[in-house]
Amino acid sequence: MIISLSILTAATGIIGAAFLVARGYNDDLARAEGDLTNLALSLQERTDGVFQSIENVLRDVVGRIPQACLQAHEFDGFAAAQTTKAILVGACHSLPQIVRIDLVNAQGRIVGSSTPRPMSDPIYLKDTAYYRALTTDPSLTLYLGEPMRIRATGKKVLTLARKIDDTDGNFLGIVVATMDLEHFERLYKDHLRTPSQAITLYRRDGIILAHCPISERALGRRVWRPNTPLQRLIAKNIPTLIRDVSWIDRKERVVALHPLAHYPAGISVSRTVAELMAGRRLESRLIAFFAYLMDIGIEAATLLGLRHVRTGILRAASESYLSRHDVLTKLPNRLHFGEDLKRTFLASQRSGTDFALLLLDLNRFKDINDSFGHGAGDEIVQTVARRLRERLRKTDFIARIGGDEFAIIQRPVRNRQQVIDLITAIQSAMRAPCTAGSTEIDVGLSIGVAMASTDGKTSTELMKAADVALYAAKSDSSSSYRFFDASIKDSRAERRALEGALKSALENKELDLFYQPILDLATNQIWGCEALARWKHPTKGMISPLQFIPTAEESGLIGPMGDWILEEACSTAMTWPQSLKVAINLSPVQFRSRDVLASVKKALEVSGLPAQRLILEITESVKLTEEATATLKKLKGLGVSIALDDFGTGYASMSYLSSFPFDKIKIDQSFVRNMLDSPDSRAIIKATIGLAKDLKMSTTAEGVETEEQLNALRLAGASQAQGYLIAKPMSREAISAFITNLQGAQPSKRDGQGPTRAVA
Ligand code: C2E
Ligand code: CA
Ligand code: CA
Asked: Cα–Cα distance between 392 and 387 in angstroms, integer?
């Protein structure tokens, strides 16, 4: 009796001590676990994004198989054709992580490949896991293969295979992308922060696809030992945090698991318990004991049906951390920032010390997201966050307050010079390009500054002042930062005024369309005209579309305005000879927020213009999502042509071009302007024309102002030219006169088909 009582007292004592320590420990641990969980989540998103972009490429390849070839005996022929090779090579080059793409027929033989070597002996892949899986399981359309080494090069690779069905739904073959495993290893390696940290990409059956720190032993084996909590949790496929002994290094680890959203795989991020507890040896022993007791408890709880008891406790502790931090960068979020700004403001009023509030915004972040995908955007935000944080003192505060917006509280500051010094340091840190995947991207920052002592009576006013300064910095091309002063005009107030004026302009018919002729270089005759919007302002005169189209896009006015432009331009074109076409610019916003297909159909119907006479110009800022591509395809289905405008000025021109079968490329005027002096511009023009010919697209060179340019373009093989040399944009009446004049001069006017057949 006495003995058992003392045991009980001792046990309660130990549990009590362990519990107290555990509470202190929980603060640190909660943070560390928050970090692990966040990292698992963000790597999950990134990895998912990589697989998605690869799957899109595969889907695109399949989408290009002509209907007629979707029959077993035609498939081999299609796969072996030279044009198919070009498709596969293009698809392979569209993403840096793809090593090769192969087409495999129903018999398991490689019938087409992106690799340059011709295939002498037939290669059969019947033994590959993906062939077996995709041929035996009818419900499976996609297969993520295990890691392998290419014998010839020693390169470690993964495969993503997609089934191809014929028109009746029968198995026809497989398209396989072989991916460079190093791409994943590099991505994960960049996120290793502590010596004990490990990051694993596993397939849902537990096979390790990639592991960092790189371990040959781990690759291709299973993450779990049978009958362990890890095995059970991976099978459940939900994000969790657990503690388990790793069989790779046999150490006890805290592991954050996160399944990928769209693929049968997941990310695990872990650190050893020993490292988490470093410097707390006695405590860690107690904790170990505590954990042991809890494990016994867990076994018991499991029996009672209460699972994840400990995980629940750990997660609760990390939740308060998560609600105040940004998942991606781990910086404080907007909520946390607001509280801190208030506190700092009051403290500074009390003590009389000054501080500076800096708002920072990435330039053209939307373009980066649109061109490279959100994965790349995320990577850039993380890099910027890291670079900013490295430039700050311990007393300063930094938060991520929006997608591409950061806020810094620089405290305390003695004078403006100190703020300028910080800005200079930040800007020199941003001079190095940021890497996203294997691309290097220059990222600029605009900064608005407000000083607590002069620019606001409350923290809210101070925030508003910094915001106005930021806007001024953004619209001022000569400097990337601005301090608030009362003379800065609130450019957004101006914009609102412009919006209002634009709205009434649309109602009062102050908008107009001008038309610029485009010359066909093969026949030397006018091919058609591009419609260009103009605003005839009653007092300010003619306003350029470069000024009002962005405002129309931001305010949503581009919707009705775009519809009007389509109808007006189509009906004007009806007054021209039938051989002339009309080119109309479409804004990316029209694509995102409007039923463009319906608008175009309506314009064609109302005007009576045959679809074959209409060509729509889009730029790379139209993101080619599946939905957008489908819309473009439907437009082409109507008979309308699609041109890629301003080619060469975006970030991803080449990959963009391979994502949709455009009819025409418009070479940006910047290349034409420089072509006589700059060998680079000449090379780009030549390459673009060559590429367009290979892809059966026509080319229009824009901004042709001199005879020399025109001759050089003719020599280079451009199909058409547009520019002041031929004619400036002109009103509806003027273009009519211009055309009539030309017809008088060219008795051999043609009817029906225009000369550039590739565009029809
Ligand atoms: P863009 O589509 O690249 O149009 C060509 C621009 O180059 C036009 O400017 C045209 O006047 C100008 N241009 C033509 N030839 C020459 C030349 O030889 N030298 C020089 N320096 N410039 C030349 P504009 O009319 O000011 O239009 C500017 C941009 O505004 C257009 O660029 C287009 O992106 C946009 N835009 C114009 N109209 C519309 C419209 O109806 N809808 C939409 N969404 N955007 C439009
Ligand atoms: Ca255009
Ligand atoms: Ca253009």
From this structure: 9
Specify the ligand 1 atom closest to the Cα of 532.
38
Question: How many whole angstroms separate alpha carbon 372 and alpha carbon 360?
Answer: 22
Task: Write down all domains in the chain, each with its CATH number in brackets.
Answer: 40-280 (3.30.450.20), 325-488 (3.30.70.270), 514-741 (3.20.20.450)
Is a pLDDT exceeding 70 seen at residue 734? yes
pLDDT digit string (tens) for 267-280? Answer: 999 998 778 776 55
Cα 742 from Cα 739, distance rounded (Å): 5
Q: Strand pairing of 405-413 and 354-362?
A: antiparallel
Distances (CA, A) of 633 to 53, 326, 591: 20, 39, 13
Residues whose CB falls within 8 Å of the CB of residue 673, separated by 6 or more in sequence, listed in order: 681, 703, 705
Q: Would the CB of 705 count as within 6 Å of ligand 1? A: yes
What confidence tens digit (pLDDT) does each residue in 411-435 have? 999 999 999 999 999 999 999 999 8
Query: Distance (Å, rounded) from C-alpha 293 to C-alpha 310?
Result: 11
- pTM of this structure: 0.48
Is residue 624 a contact partner of residue 660, using CB atoms and an 8 Å limit?
yes
Q: CA-to-CA distance for 179 and 96, rounded, in angstroms?
A: 9
Residue 117 CA to residue 125 CA, distance in Å, equals 18
Q: Which of 532, 543, 615, 713 to mutate to test the pocket of ligand 1 (most atoms within 8 A of CB)?
A: 532
CA of 44 to the centre of ligand 2 (A): 39
Express each pLDDT in 588-597 by its tens digit. 988 887 789 9
Beta-carbon contacts of 665 under 8 Å, excluding residues fewer than 6 positions away, are: 643, 644, 647, 657, 688, 692, 697, 698, 699, 700
| Mean model confidence pLDDT for the chain | 83
pLDDT at 119: 58
B/e letters for 560-580, b = 16+ CB within 10 Å, e = fewer, are: ebbbbbbbbbbbbbeebbbbb
- Ligand closest to Cα of 532 equals 1
CA 545 to ligand 2 centroid distance, Å: 11
CB 287 within 8 A of CB 18: yes
